[in-house]
Specification:
The protein is mainly α. Helices cover about 70% and strands about 0% of the residues.
């Protein structure tokens, strides 16, 4: 498993070192220089001519400050900006192996799922070529679920959850489910999880919330994504000729309704099956992608590892179909201008994702719920059978 993860990391780094990457690489370089001038806290209140809105959470600013410092020593920023995502995929491959190993009937299934993450064309394309921070945030979110449900470490789980939303705000949809699962573990678990989350959140977010709260709210908390009609619901609405007002609503205020639906689904599953928390997190993030009204090839990262947590065949189908979508999309004229074949592959991948989530939810619900004593921190019981596991062949 370590060999496969290492080969995957090497592949990503070779791509990062030998390709210019999409426009985001240059945009991040601009952000890094601006952070160096204004600082990771004040960056939110300054206009950035020639750059899009700075919509990244506070920890991303500190990361960019460090990467810019390394680039001034002679290292390539284009390579550096893609390194965190590549390293996150390395960790995520091992993490998925551990999650599945505790639930599958055979270790072979866990190995296949871990290798699937390591060689995923979705993740190789989005981490090795694109280099956004999505992979880092998803890795922290899955780590939080694993630490809470499997490793009896609610304090560390809370810290990982706070780190996930401090890199990119997307995993905020899974935070309520994590708190519910901690609650189901008993008061000591909930208190330790809340302490870990609160301490890291205060450390990273506190200075920005005190200094520029309104700018942070506008840039990060209210960011709705792009307005392209390339993926999912807005793509189908466009194809079926729905009025522009409907699509505008979906991409405007309506997208908050989809976010609330994702949160509600995660909370419900976490309450019913807290021991299956990694699968619950995978479903919640996958549902967010399914209902997303924004379009971006890097967003495909949100479900790439999680579908392997739900099942090997689900992960394989998703990563093959949408891996081809990502590769062809990045090979085109622009990552935000998809050709007709890429649009059709994206639509097929959307259907594959919907099917994967449906089977994943069914597997989670058919597992036997674990009833834990109030004073017992662990949320996971002994290794389950194939019939009751979250991921099976």
């Amino acid at each position: 498993m370590l060999i496969a993860a290492a080969v995957g990391l090497l592949t990503r780094m070779v791509i990062a070192a030998n390709s210019p990457g999409p426009a985001d690489v240059r945009i991040f370089a601009g952000f890094a220089k601006a952070v160096t001038v204004y600082g990771p806290i004040r960056i939110y209140e300054h206009p950035l001519p020639g750059l899009p809105v700075y919509n990244h959470p506070p920890l991303a600013g500190w990361m960019l400050l460090g990467l810019n410092g390394l680039s001034e020593l002679g290292m390539s920023f284009a390579t550096l900006i893609r390194s965190p995502a590549a390293l996150a995929d390395f960790c995520c491959a091992i993490l998925v192996f551990e999650i599945v190993r505790r639930r599958a009937a055979r270790t072979t299934t866990a190995v296949l799922c871990g290798v699937g993450v390591a060689v995923s064309p979705v993740l190789i394309a989005t981490s090795g070529y694109h280099g956004n921070t999505d992979a880092v945030a998803i890795a922290f979110a899955l780590a939080a679920a694993h630490l809470l449900a499997d490793r009896k470490s609610p304090l560390a789980a809370g810290a990982a959850a706070a780190l996930s939303i401090s890199v990119k705000f997307i995993p905020v949809v899974v935070v309520p489910a994590l708190f519910v699962a901690a609650l189901r573990g008993g008061r000591p678990v909930l208190l330790r999880f809340a302490a870990g989350f609160g301490a890291l959140f205060a450390l990273v977010w506190g200075p920005v919330l005190v200094t520029v709260p309104l700018r942070l709210k506008e840039n990060v908390l209210e960011y709705a994504g792009g307005t392209y009609h390339l993926w999912g619901l807005v793509r189908f609405a466009d194809v079926f000729g729905l009025p522009d007002s409907v699509i505008t609503f979906m991409q405007g205020g309506g997208h908050f309704l989809f976010v609330l639906l994702c949160v509600a689904a995660g909370v419900w599953l976490a309450w019913l099956r807290p021991a299956q928390l990694p699968g619950v997190v995978a479903v919640t993030l996958g549902l967010l992608l399914l209902l997303s009204t924004a379009s971006g090839l890097q967003y495909l990262t949100w479900a790439a590892a999680g579908t392997f947590v739900l099942g090997f065949w689900e992960g394989l189908a998703y990563n093959c179909v949408l891996g081809l979508t990502a590769v062809l999309g990045y090979s085109g004229r622009s990552a935000v201008r998809w050709s007709e074949p890429v649009l059709e592959l994206g639509a097929a991948g959307w259907i594959v994702l919907a099917a994967a989530l449906a089977t994943g939810v069914r597997r989670i619900l058919v597992t036997r719920p674990h009833t834990l004593p109030v004073a017992c921190p662990p949320l996971a019981g002994p290794r389950t059978s194939q019939r009751s596991g979250t991921a099976v062949n």
